[in-house]
Amino acid sequence: MASVRDPRPIVISGPSGVGKGTLYKLLFQRYPDTFTLSVSHTTRGPRPGELHGVDYHFVTKEAFLDLKANDGFVESAQFGDNLYGTSKATIEEQTAKGQTVVLDIEVEGVKQIQASGFPARYVFIAPPSEEELERRLRGRGTEKEDSIQKRLKQAKVELEYARVPGVHDRVIVNKDLEAAFKELEEWVFAESAESA
Ligand SMILES: Nc1ncnc2c1ncn2[C@@H]1O[C@H](COP(=O)(O)OP(=O)(O)OP(=O)(O)O)[C@@H](O)[C@H]1O
């Protein structure tokens, strides 16, 4: 098993459609057993086929709020009527199994983790241009027009925050997929001192 020297979880962020999922799925494929996606808590009910502890930790609103009050989350957010969060214990348990935890988080979550002081390293995936980002979002074919517009607006917020010095340890422009993957791979496996 390939080993990552730096035990901290990897927080990967970037605008919707930039290719974050494509990139970390390649990490999972090429290094099976080395990486794991963090399993979030949610108050929404499971969809058919979703498994507790695999897709999410499905919890009641009371249990969620209790954990939050006890400072149990590195980040949490509300989408619609449902609460979502990444628990510290989950990251610690997954890390204790010898795996490197990958968190796919939007900008508000990144800010919360940074404010929490929980040790992590941060990589931002940037598009070659806003036009190319729009092309990819459309090309993916998963979004309706109003969702595309919302994501493009949010992309500006994400890109702006990424320009603040020091918020990310590494920024990778996802132009050519293999080249971007190679950069991610090298950074992930580097000594921690090099990634700071
Ligand atoms: N380097 C690349 N060149 C061209 N197309 C790419 C590249 N990387 C990813 N794509 C394509 O861009 C689209 C968006 O990628 P992906 O779904 O991985 O984005 P994401 O950042 O994970 O989005 P979301 O945050 O909405 O989940 C996909 O259709 C993917 O195949």
TrEMBL record:
Enzyme Commission number(s): 2.7.4.8
Signal peptide coordinates: none
Entry-linked CDD domains: GMPK (cd00071)
GO MF annotation: an example: ATP binding
Keyword RNA-binding: no
Superkingdom: Eukaryota
SMART domains found in the cross-reference section: GuKc
Gene3D superfamilies the record matches: P-loop containing nucleotide triphosphate hydrolases
Enzyme class label: transferase
GO cellular component, one term: cytosol
InterPro entries: GK/Ca_channel_bsu, Guanylate_kin-like_dom, Guanylate_kinase, Guanylate_kinase_CS, P-loop_NTPase
Domain Guanylate kinase-like: 7-189
Pfam families: Guanylate_kin
Keywords, in A-Z order: ATP-binding, Hydrolase, Kinase, Nucleotide-binding, Transferase
HAMAP family: Guanylate_kinase
Annotated PANTHER family: GUANYLATE KINASE, GUANYLATE KINASE-RELATED
Protein name: Guanylate kinase
